[in-house]
Design goal:
By secondary structure, the chain is an alpha+beta fold. The protein is built from 4 helices and 11 strands; from the N terminus they run αααββαβββββββββ.
């Protein structure tokens, strides 16, 4: 085969690969508008939050290895960055119905439901397939973080424990998060869903308004990656607020817990 023919063959292969990639690409649904008011989560989600709190309180800042009980639901001895593992472990312990990403159809799913994954990217894709992402925080939602001025929009995930309305699209959110400095930590931040620069939608709670003392497992600082601050990419909804009850539902996928 001549050099020219090899070049043409390579170009043809690249064109075919690009075409396949485009064919498999599905548009990302926009975040849902669920109204701005904080609602109380259902009993099942309250159990998740109670379990997450108990883990945070019991560990009290203890550091963990990358292989721990929050990773072993994936298999004995498995280790990975376990922020998503912690969230899913809490969901499993609470008995929340769930399915892995590959079993979730691109349609709404009825009732309380979780994506049984540890990867932040897979959690995001699974919830987006079900049409369950939003910019409005609620207790029991998952919070997905990105890094400002970075391509990394899925750097970390946590669990929203409490939300206080501050008005005009601003909220004070308390989160419980795994694998932050190898700990389960509580973060308390102010979040502005209407921030002109989305990369700066998190801010520090004024000292005079703080109700808990900062420690190795209670933090008010906005986390950073390579000196760039985290921001909130979106929230993922294991439960549907009342204002969204009109969503068309489909049967839960086979193989759910």
């Amino acid at each position: 085969m001549t050099k020219w023919m090899r070049c043409m063959a390579l170009c043809l292969c690249l064109c075919m690969l690009c075409a396949c990639a485009l064919a498999d690409t599905t548009p990302t649904p926009p975040p849902l508008d669920i109204g701005g008011h904080v609602q109380q989560p259902p009993e099942e989600i309250r159990r998740v939050l109670d379990i997450a709190w108990q883990e945070w309180e019991t560990l009290a800042g203890k550091t963990l290895k990358d292989c721990n009980k929050y990773t072993e639901w994936r298999g004995k001895g498995i280790s990975f960055g376990w922020c998503g593992g912690y969230v899913t472990w809490c969901m499993i312990e609470a008995g929340i119905p769930m399915a892995e990403l590959q079993k979730i159809e691109e349609a709404p799913v009825e009732g309380v439901f979780h994506v049984k994954e540890a990867s932040v990217g897979k959690l995001l894709r699974g919830y987006q397939r079900m049409g369950r992402s939003t910019n409005v925080p609620q207790p029991g939602f998952l919070v997905v973080y990105g890094v400002r001025k970075s391509a990394n929009k899925t750097v970390h995930v946590g669990l929203v424990y409490d939300v206080q309305e501050l008005g005009e699209g601003r909220y004070r959110i308390t989160t419980l998060e795994g694998n932050m400095s190898h700990r389960v930590k509580m973060y308390i931040h102010d979040y502005d869903m209407n921030a002109q620069d989305k990369g700066l939608n998190l801010s520090v709670v004024p000292e005079e308004e703080r109700t808990l003392e900062a420690s190795s497992y209670v933090d008010y600082k906005v986390p950073t990656s390579q000196k760039k601050p985290f921001y909130i990419n979106c929230f993922l909804m294991p439960w549907i607020p009342e204002t969204m009850d009109e969503l068309t539902s489909t049967p839960v996928p086979e193989g759910t817990k």
